[in-house]
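Backbone-to-sequence.
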């Protein structure tokens, strides 16, 4: 198996949080453990192609990362500050030879790492990049490319996030049950935001960032494996799979955006959609109802319609009404207005849209004006629709969306 193979890359990313966790448990210093793990992954990328994948790749990575971390600890600028700290955890002889018990542990620290990276001392942006780096196993360069910033800028963001974790004194342990209840929404939100940024990139020439959406799905799968009875984790994975099943139909070969109602549904990925429907159906039957389950149920209604005309918009409106109760937000109201317009006619949709933006909070969001334009076009009010499409095009920073919205305006 060559290092370039997808299976090896998946293995690295699955093992990354386990390696970091093993080092943090032994030595402390989350930031150094994470850096040492990245160095071990780099070593694997250069050695495994020639030497083959080790029989125990996890043990190999932990051993190499331990040696890298010890080298850091022994450096002149770090010795005075750190060796006293490490001495409390580890006998001197263990520094000379990385502890064998690190490689023998069967602990999967992925969930612990997720909670640590989503610590409430961090901003949402910091939680996202640290999760991608420490749990997802992405390099700084890969994360920088995903968010269209220089690698040096992203390195600084990640460094600040790791420093914040260190300064908080957060222990590397599974949070208590009450803490998990408190912090699980942040974990799910970070995974949700990573997926959304991959599904519709905020900036740039590409509509989608496959690396981010794929990574979000992979991490959510791992979370569900660790917490199989959690209905919201199942709901989030279902939502991702159902949404991602449409990926291949969302753009033309030239990269132009194709709206939902015009997509070739035969190009949707049936296996992903079927898995998503099964997940959300099971979660709704057995678990306490949550917002991700309801969003997945909405996506399932779209997936189960063989044509756009057969979409059960009345059911979608009812689900949005439920979502407004569970997790009210202006964006939920905006999406509900679309469904109302499709179920009850454009005038009803325009009334719902006006209600959704009564506070004016959505004035600077391009989707408000795109929806407004679409509903105005449906009632035949073409000049205001054209102006609304153009305003939406000015407000979005996605070039495929800009082109699509401008073309809609030009056609009226």
């Amino acid at each position: 198996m060559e290092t370039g193979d997808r299976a090896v890359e998946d293995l690295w990313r699955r093992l990354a949080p386990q390696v970091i966790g093993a080092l943090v448990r032994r030595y402390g210093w989350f930031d150094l453990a994470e850096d040492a793990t990245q160095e071990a992954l780099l070593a694997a990328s250069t050695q495994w192609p020639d030497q083959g994948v080790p029989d125990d790749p996890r043990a190999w990575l932990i051993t190499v990362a331990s040696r890298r971390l010890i080298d850091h600890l022994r450096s002149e600028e770090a010795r005075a500050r750190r060796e006293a700290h490490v001495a409390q955890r580890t006998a001197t002889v263990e520094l000379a030879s990385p502890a064998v018990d690190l490689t023998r542990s069967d602990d999967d620290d992925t969930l612990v790492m997720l909670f640590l990276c989503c610590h409430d001392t961090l901003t949402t942006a910091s939680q996202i990049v640290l999760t991608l780096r420490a749990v997802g196993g992405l390099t700084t360069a890969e994360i920088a490319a995903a968010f269209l910033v220089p690698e040096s800028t992203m390195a600084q963001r990640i460094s600040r996030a790791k420093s914040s974790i260190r300064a908080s004194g957060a222990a590397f342990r599974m949070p208590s049950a009450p803490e998990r209840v408190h912090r699980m929404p942040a974990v799910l939100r970070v995974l949700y935001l990573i997926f959304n940024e991959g599904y519709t990139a905020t900036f740039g020439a590409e509509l989608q960032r496959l690396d981010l959406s794929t990574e979000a799905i992979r991490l959510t799968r791992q979370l569900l494996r660790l917490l199989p009875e959690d209905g919201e984790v199942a709901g989030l994975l279902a939502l991702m799979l159902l949404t991602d099943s449409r990926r291949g139909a969302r753009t033309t070969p030239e990269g132009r955006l194709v709206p939902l109602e015009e997509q070739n549904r035969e190009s949707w990925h049936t296996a992903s959609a079927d898995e998503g429907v099964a997940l959300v159906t099971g979660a709704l039957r057995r678990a306490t109802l949550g917002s991700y389950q309801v969003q997945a149920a909405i996506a399932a209604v779209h997936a189960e319609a063989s044509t756009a005309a057969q979409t059960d918009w009345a059911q979608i409106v009812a689900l949005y009404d439920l979502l407004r109760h569970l997790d009210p937000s202006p964006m939920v109201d905006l999406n509900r207005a679309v469904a109302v317009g499709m179920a009850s006619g454009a005038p009803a949709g325009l009334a719902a849209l006006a209600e959704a933006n009564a506070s004016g909070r959505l004035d600077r969001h391009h989707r408000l004006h795109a929806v407004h334009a679409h509903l105005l076009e449906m009632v035949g009010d073409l000049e205001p629709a054209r102006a609304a499409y153009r305003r939406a095009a000015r407000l979005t920073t996605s070039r495929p969306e800009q082109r699509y919205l401008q073309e809609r305006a030009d056609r009226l």
